[in-house]
Amino acid sequence: MTMRGPAVDLPIVLQDVSYRVRDIAILDRISLWLTPGAPTVLIGPNGAGKTTLLRLAMGLVEPTGGSVTFGGRAHVPPLRRGFVRQRPTMLRRSTAANVEYALATSAVARSEWPTRVTQLLDLVGLAGFGARPARRLSGGEQQRLALARALARDPQVLFLDEPTASLDPAATKAIEDLVRTIAARNIKVVMSTHDLGEARRLAGDIVFMHRGRVVESGPAADFFAAPTTQEARRFVAGELLV
User: Fold this and answer.
1) Distance of alpha carbon 176 from alpha carbon 182, whole angstroms
2) CA-CA distance, 51 to 200, in Å (whole number)?
3) What is the CA radius of gyration of the chain?
4) Cβ distance 125 to 150 under 8 Å?
5) What digits encode the pLDDT tens for the residues 215-236?
6) pLDDT tens for each residue of 21-53
7) How far apart are CA 119 and CA 1, in angstroms?
8) Which distant-in-sequence residues (6+ apart) come within 8 Å of 15 by Cβ?
9) pLDDT in tens, 89-100
């Protein structure tokens, strides 16, 4: 099935973006281009600002300084962007009805919902789970259902916040395989992770963050082969950054 049309929201450009909560700087003067292509993966220690950066790029919050543009335009509603939280909330209804709820906010005609639900559940490996209560699914299954809901709106860009956190290796592999499938359909994936192995396996580009700033960014192969900053070298080596 076709998952997206022309990429009108890309590139997403953050220009000198800051985000403050009262006197605390969560993000400090970040400039970043998110362009079509392989997944962009945000890495860095807890508190680096990864989740806030994802939310700003999604358009869920406004920067307190600088600007964010989508395909050269400002203040574009996130109609073709999807966001999956680290711990997504499952609606108290069936697996299929969770996807239908997402379809209700899409441009898909109601007559096409049954077909689309079947397609999406098959895509995320939940074929045959439609009647099962969503809250009785395993953690990995719930995360895949959250991906199906996000894909229901036919996104051009998909933001994933720590999508494999707390999952076992089998569930993690299922999510990683799904990320590859989504990226192969020309949907831009922007995700955060604490897992350097996952970043190596999935990333086309790396954005390394520390203390609310982008310390280093570029092609993943170059970053892991020869990080150019002391902070990045320490992080890749497994040292704790505070």
Assistant:
1) 10
2) 20
3) 18
4) no
5) 999 999 999 999 999 999 999 9
6) 998 999 999 999 999 999 999 999 999 999 999
7) 8
8) 31, 66, 67, 68, 69
9) 999 999 999 999
Q: Any idea how long the chain is? A: 242
Alpha-carbon gap, residue 36 to 47, rounded angstroms: 27
Torsional sign, CA 141, 147, 150, 153: negative
Q: Is the pLDDT of residue 2 over 70?
A: no
Token code pair at residue 38: 């392989």
Q: What is the 3-state secondary structure (H, E, C) of 103-115?
A: HCCCCCCHHHHHH
Only one residue has tokens 């259902």, namely 145
Residue 33 in tokens = 């281009």
Domains contained in the chain, CATH given: 8-80+156-242 (3.40.50.300), 93-154 (no CATH)
Q: Which residue matches tokens 């497994």?
A: 238
